[in-house]
Specification:
GO molecular function: phosphatidylinositol binding
Structural class: alpha+beta
Order of helices and strands: HHHHEEEEEHEEHEEHH
CATH topology of the domain at 70-89 and 104-192: PH-domain like
Pfam families: PH (PF00169), PX (PF00787)
Protein name: Phospholipase D1
CATH architecture of the domain at 70-89 and 104-192: Roll
Organism: Fulmarus glacialis (Northern fulmar)
Oligomer: single chain
Number of helices: 8
């Protein structure tokens, strides 16, 4: 802890913000708004301090991760710890060979909901393990009958059927409602098919461009905005996936190079 304290930059805040010491029962009704503002400022100051912001207890309590503060990734949906089941890929070669529940593994992951995708990370390292894109087949089911899992939650798209296990039916319902409402509000354009069979709607007056990378005089590779590359180079440029990894972005660039 001594080394960590010494490594903190001088410009960063070091002291914990304070809350009022008076009891809530003694506060007059006309002062409720100011007390709420004090609590909001308290949480905001904590999130500005990397030592507390990156602490797993803070992440779980407030429902944030390191991706919550990257504005280029779009609006923030709900986040939290979940248990996810292995398998469910519609891509040949990524599923286990056995049959039944004995073949599956359950792992604890941090699930993040964004406007055009869902992803889960490893809680200890923060490494992104999988990205589930919102597409025309995106659908959510809950219940043991649909998921073969008690308090299960199933999220489908063109490339995978992801099974999550929740603590209770109410917990599963909370995830289902939170994901569905957020996607319907912010990602509805990805739920239908668009021009030329594309999964994405036509965007007018946007700063995102489709740059061209010339690897040879006879080759030209087009790829999407760079924040997709930073997030997931394993994105499939041609969907649904029917030819293995042939049309995965990193495989296309490697093949052309």
């Amino acid at each position: 802890h001594t080394v960590r304290r010494q490594s903190i930059k001088r410009g960063e805040p070091r002291q914990m913000p304070s809350l009022p010491h008076t009891s809530e029962s003694t506060v007059r009704e006309e002062h409720f708004s100011s007390r709420r503002k004090q609590l909001e400022d308290y949480l905001a100051k904590i999130l500005k301090m990397p030592m507390y912001r990156n602490y797993h207890g803070t992440m779980e309590f407030i429902g944030v991760s390191q991706l919550s503060f990257i504005h280029d990734l779009g609006p923030k949906g709900i986040e939290g710890l979940i248990m996810k089941r292995s398998g469910g890929h519609r891509i040949p070669g990524l599923n286990c060979c056995g049959q039944g529940r004995m073949c599956y593994r359950w792992s604890k992951r941090w699930l993040v909901v964004k406007d055009s995708f869902l992803l889960y990370m490893k809680p200890d390292s923060g490494a992104i393990a999988f990205v589930l894109l919102v597409d025309k087949e995106f659908n959510i089911k809950i219940g043991q009958k649909e998921t073969e899992t008690k308090y299960g939650l199933q999220i489908d798209n063109l490339s995978r059927s992801l099974i999550l296990k929740c603590n209770s039916y109410r917990h599963a319902q909370w995830w289902r409602q939170g994901i569905d409402e957020f996607i319907r509000k912010h990602g509805k354009d990805f739920l239908t098919e668009h021009r030329f069979g594309s999964y994405a709607a036509v965007q007018e007056n946007t700063l995102a461009k489709w740059p061209m990378l010339c690897l040879q005089t006879t080759y030209a590779v087009f790829f999407p905005p760079l924040y997709f590359l930073r997030l997931s180079p394993e994105i499939f440029m041609k969907r649904p996936v029917v030819e293995g990894n042939r049309w995965r972005l990193d495989c296309i660039l490697k093949r052309k190079a």
